[in-house]
Amino acid sequence: MANYLTLWVFLAFCMITVVQSTDSGFTLKSGKNPNLVTNLPGQPKVGFNHYSGYVTVNEEHGRALFYWFYEAATLKEKRPLVLWLNGGPGCSSVGYGATQEIGPFIINSDGKTLSFNEHSWNKEANMLFLESPVGVGFSYSNKTSDYKILGDNITAEDSYKFLQNWFAIYPQYRTHEFYIAGESYGGKYVPELAELIHDKNKMSSKSHYINLKGFMVGNPETHDANDWRGQMDYAWSHAVVSDETHKMILDYCDFDANNTFDNQNCTDAVDEVFAQYDKIDMYSLYTPKCIHKNITKHAKHGGNLFKYSTHKVHFYVSMKRVGGYDPCLDDYAAVYYNRYDVQKALHVLNGSHLRNWSICNYDIFNGWNYSRPSVLPAYHKLMKAGLRIWVYSGDTDGRVPVLSTRYSLNALQVPKSAWRPWYYQDQVGGWTQDYGKLTFFTVRGAGHAVPLFDRGEALFFFTSFLSGKVLPKQ
Question: Does residue 372 share a domain with residue 348?
Fold first, then answer.
């Protein structure tokens, strides 16, 4: 059974008055910024500052979101600001994106020390990692009823409020070019937030305008029916299930219908797909599963828990993904973030209490109130507005496989460019195609969380995205 995250109640942080400092980024009139991280256990020495703490998004309820912000390693005054969102819903952007994938520090297997990531995305941008919504990671609310109303809309609204209040604390970044990136269920979070910012900007004064330029999502949930259809076809096409099982799905499952799982034949066939996936790693088909003896039977995944309804029964699938050369990174994160000295260094503690941290919150996942069935309308709106949109897909992921993404993007019904390979270090990195003004590309040999499989390649395409350069033909 899943380990449920205990929801702790904390007092909201008070707002602080800041003045700009050319050295450390920001200082208080009475001293240094209290959110500056100065003594993170096991951290290698670096030449940039990083900050963590809380931003209140609802003062009446005491609802506050936890963030970790890394200045760009160089030229922080000129580089863009990028917000990263993991998904779930219910999983931590700090535990996954920041310290497994694209941040400057990677948690080591001892749960005590951090390694420097030479391919950190803060080489190219100021990176802001947000634990959203409340109940994820260290984010919290003083009103327990807040945890019962979580869904796509409130997540986007709270994230927008977070940004406005964060800019009030770090005002010099408001005019920077702003991008959003994420993966998995972040495939819904990211365009939903981008759309909200775009709409709010039309009514905002200069003091509240966010300089949004685009977004990028990886292995993203996009359009529910096509995500399902692609997932089932991918399992069959990659020899995970039999011809007979796939035929049952084709014959009995109508993923465009809300009641498709009322059909017992469909339910049985889909159950069989996940029974087979349970024997391997659905998030990375061709790499070993974590067999660490302390792993829970149903491990948590950073960006994508999975759920479907079978009549009145909920069936939950969440499998451990392989992280580069080590499939057990989630365990190391749980050890590290549940240390008193780590929480104290990250300004998490309220008094002397140690907070129970989990990389994913199953209460949030199980109780999710609303998920948009499709974010393609947001894509259409934001493409028309001229935003830069890149979508990538690790091609060995079975959870949100490349077929799901291609089916979903085809539903945009826009002109497509020719399909061609793109190159990284003289090797084919994958294939790419433009859907109107949207760029889609695959990442060859990568699973669900693409940066884990080749951080150098991920930094390369991130740099290309920020600069607006096409992926190289040779």
Answer: yes
